[in-house]
Amino acid sequence: MKLTVFSTHDYDREYFDKVNAEFGHEIVYHDAQLTEDTAALAEGSEAVCLFINDRANRAALESLANAGVKLLTLRSAGFNHVDLEAAEAFDLKVMRVPAYSPEAVAEHTAALILALNRKTHKAYNRVREGNFSLNKLTGFTMKEKTVGVVGTGKIGIAFCKIMLGFGCRVIAHDPYPSEEAKALGVDYIGLEELYNQADIISLHCPLTPENHRMIDGEAISHMKKGVMLINTSRGGLVHTKSVIQALKQRHIGSLGIDVYEQEENLFFRNLSEEVIEDDMIMRLMSFPNVLITAHQAFFTDTALTNIATTTLQNVTDFEQGNDSENTVTSDRIK
Ligand code: NAI
């Protein structure tokens, strides 16, 4: 089947071409992000492949449908960037890669925590400049600290295991508590209690209309002074202005983010020679106790291979009319 890939990066091409040797689909790559204006690039393809910064809104989906597209296959687990109701209205099937390496994201989350805690990002620069002083590099021992995990799905559980390995007490909040997590020794509690007790809070729930900007001034007011806040899930979970305010007031002690609400205008591109107009990210970057990575938590060899394999299998399943648990609908995930 002919598949048009939007927002292609070198690594997408590399892994898709390698894996497609087994599948034999006809793949057309475009660097362009999907928007209403670029949708026509898919003319002649029954399937398109999208990433999280593609704008699959109603107008773009209508244009894709007009171009003859029948399948949107997402090379991501999250699907909050797709207007699912519009997709159904235009008879576009949506499929995703539900799990490609939960451990990759969990491990990057742990990397952010350790770097922020032990100030590795600062130590690296200091030593390179011949500054071997330890002043202001004090961290804390992770053992016996309380880690609050919001969302204990595949990534949340992988992350709980790592934190339990460090000897942390792990508390969690999830509307659907996991028996596996309980058996590991994770204690489920209410969200406010979690905010109250946790030394480190890590977000691992999907972004939905209900939890949009759940980390706002009110939520932060329940958190411990000096809390470490980590978000490797979706930028929209956090009200950035409130977080900046709390950093200035020293209420949030450190912040690690791999996602950012306005990331679609910034991430996955080299803007080092540009004037960056987003004042909020520039303010965040100015804090010594903030560590930002540009949505790289998933970015391992294992994950890229799994993403390409599942995406191309989704295209084959669609082509052959096979049922697939990777199908996403507006009311539920089939
Ligand atoms: P999952 O579907 O396995 O688990 C999500 C869990 O969150 C479920 O247990 C669900 O009950 C829970 N949940 C839903 N709403 C909640 C709420 N309001 N409060 C607390 N818990 C809630 O998803 P998975 O694979 O663990 O991924 C989680 C998220 O991680 C994705 O939705 C995506 O946004 C993000 N992600 C980030 C990546 C990165 O590179 N930074 C890569 C992959 C995923």
Task: Walk me through this protein's architecture.
With 334 residues, this protein is an alpha/beta fold. The protein has two domains: 2-100 and 300-328, Rossmann fold (3-Layer(aba) Sandwich), CATH 3.40.50; 102-292, Rossmann fold. Helices cover 36% and strands 15% of the residues. It contains twelve helices and 13 strands. The chain has helices spanning 10-23, 58-66, 84-89, 102-118, 120-128, 154-165, 179-184, 191-197, 217-221, 240-248, 279-285, 301-320, and strands at 2-5, 26-29, 47-50, 71-74, 93-95, 146-150, 169-173, 187-188, 200-203, 227-231, 252-257, 290-292, 327-328. The strands form two sheets. Strands 8-7-6-9-10-11-12 form a seven-stranded parallel β-sheet, with helices on both faces. Strands 2-1-3-4-5-13 form a six-stranded mixed β-sheet. Helix 4 (102-118) packs across helix 6 (154-165). The protein is globular. The model has no long low-confidence stretch (mean pLDDT 96). Bound molecules: 1,4-dihydronicotinamide adenine dinucleotide.
